[in-house]
């Protein structure tokens, strides 16, 4: 909605000859206006809205044509939002509140809510429907939610319930029965709102205010429906240019918070228009609270307040562009309707005498029946739902008839069929289906067992008499396993008994030592002839062997094999094994190589 309020007329009634007071906006008709094009002042840019109201329009025209149609949706269980947007000093607060001679949107909407609710009660034949109206009033000041009805509730959180609905815990809700009750709570709370003076506005709003009116419509007869509608009346703080407002200190911080929240509001509108997967509602308390109004489930109305003077050209152009983008946002309203269950009075606790009678009747039911089968069977005792107590409380006759049919159905199912479980019908059906599947599976397993038994019996009958199964044998614990112990290397005192062909000769060291060190000080020697033959074999491989054969020797890898092959190509061969040291092997490596090859030759 494009709008220019009557309060701002004083801004334009100066000398039109002055350049700063020249008009930059002109209304074309009731839906269209045009503004000068800043690129070419000989051209104009047109904007089309649902309604355009010039400076001569009254508060009554704006309310009746744009705001009042939303109240019908609220009384029918839907949500609606009305918020004023525009730069500072453009008349947003005047649009929402008005003055004594020209009341604004808030007082007119509250009056009509009470009037329309009374008219609906009269039109619906008396007390069939009842209306309950409650109010809440809050402000968002520097990204903090403050309760204006109760000054002690500061910095309230904003939450989302399981139905994706936004609510504020601990926010005060007061029931109002008429307009006098509303004024008694609203006027003191209005004084708690944060305002201050700037160069552009003597009473500038320093916060966003939200008035919430909740209407609950309850039906007093069957099926006891309940419709809940909410009306949000929002007065946004105006965007400010600190160079013109002269804000400093606290006012500067307030201005930064206001501009930041309005910037997030613009980002949310852009994200909704572009169809982005993520809409940044949570980036600001304002957009989080207006989540239902922006692309949600509420009927939304934006009143864009503008200033037509050329000195406010850029603020006016920004407001018109934002209003044009917001007009493209699509909401999806729906009716919030619930059905209250019928209240059944709780059963009274029976006396001990009645409990004894029930126990006796239960014992008699367990005894064998000797009565004639043709005798009528009385239904079991139960609590009558259609008692005279309900009839005396003014319940509808149709409701009592339905309860009587329900009672009769319970009695019939109790005699002829399985008892009704205290579970939903779909869950009972799933349990019955699962029971049938289990019974079928058991039946298939029994048939399969019978087939296997017949096959086994036919095989045993053809081969001979069926042998009894062997008796079960109880397993005994295994006996203790024998363990082999390897004694340490024994020293040989007399080496004369050893034959010449032996490989290893172990001798005691000639040095004197204690008995504990005797086993450790031994000498290991080889037979000279065998040792010489092994040296010849290794020398032959060093001179004639391939790289693969060389790597088969212990302690010889790729690098050592390449060193040996390179030596052979350069020098022609090895005269003895010790020449490996000349080829590049260290003395320690050569000693390890000779010992390893000497032992490996005789262990193969």
Question: In words, what does this structure look like?
Answer:
39% of the residues lie in helices and 16% in strands. It has helices spanning 59-67, 69-75, 92-97, 105-123, 179-191, 242-245, 250-274, 285-289, 313-326, 352-366, 388-391, 397-416, 425-463, 528-544, 547-551, 558-571, 580-583, 587-603, and strands spanning 2-3, 25-27, 32-36, 44-48, 52-53, 79-85, 129-140, 145-147, 159-160, 166-167, 174-176, 195-196, 204-205, 208-219, 225-235, 298-305, 337-339, 504-508, 522-526. Strand 14 (208-219) and strand 15 (225-235) form a beta hairpin. It is flat, with a radius of gyration of 51 Å. Residues 1-17, 343-355, 362-389, 414-418 and 486-524 have low confidence and may be disordered.
Helices, by number, come to: 18
Structure class: alpha+beta
Helix content: 25-40%
Mean pLDDT: 75
User: In percent, how much strand structure appears in the residues?
Assistant: 15-25%
Largest sheet features: 10 strands, mixed
Radius of gyration: 51 Å
Low-confidence stretches: 1-17, 343-355, 362-389, 414-418, 486-524
